Automatic annotation (TrEMBL):
The chain crosses the membrane at residues 16-33, 39-61, 73-97, 103-125. Na(+) binds at residues 80, 83. HAMAP family: FluC. Keywords: Cell membrane, Ion channel, Ion transport, Membrane, Metal-binding, Sodium, Transmembrane, Transmembrane helix, Transport. It comes from the Bacteria. Na(+) is not transported, but it plays an essential structural role and its presence is essential for fluoride channel function. It is a multi-pass membrane protein. The gene is fluC. It comes from Limosilactobacillus oris F0423. This is Fluoride-specific ion channel FluC. It catalyses: fluoride(in) = fluoride(out). Its main location: membrane. Belongs to the fluoride channel Fluc/FEX (TC 1.A.43) family. It is found in: Cell membrane.
């Protein structure tokens, strides 16, 4: 049997609420960008999200500059909802059915670009995080 102390329960609830509220914002932002830019919007959200998560990790989360509930809200909630693997996969399949070359290019740019943006964010985060 698992027991939860009152303070621990409050922290778990705070984390769940933070992730939910930030995810609402990230999901709405992704929807707005996607509705305006279509496939390019999904790509932009995923690339920017890769950069922001790495930057946030190395400037704020790793150095514990904000409360745990806030870093979970920003990283898992906001950026997790802004970026989405399921949309990436579905878009790649949709493109493949009508434009296989475009699907391959989208896959390569999304994967390679996401990795490059994460590396850039980590590099910048480490530089900014130096004391």
């Amino acid at each position: 049997m698992v027991t939860i102390q009152n303070g621990e329960l409050k922290m778990k609830i705070r984390k769940v609420i933070a992730v939910g509220l930030f995810a609402f914002g990230g999901g709405m932002l992704r929807y707005l960008v996607n509705s305006g830019w279509g496939v390019l919007g999904i790509l932009v959200c995923n690339l920017i999200g890769s950069f922001l998560l790495a930057l946030l990790t190395y400037t704020v989360i790793e150095r514990k500059l904000v409360a745990n509930w806030l870093s979970l809200g920003l990283g898992t909630g906001l950026i997790g909802a802004l970026t989405t693997f399921s949309t990436f996969a579905a878009t790649t399949i949709q493109l493949w059915q009508s434009h296989p070359l475009a699907a391959g290019l989208y896959f390569i740019v999304s994967s390679g670009g996401g990795l490059a943006m994460a590396l850039l964010g980590a590099w910048l985060g480490r530089r900014l995080g130096r004391d």
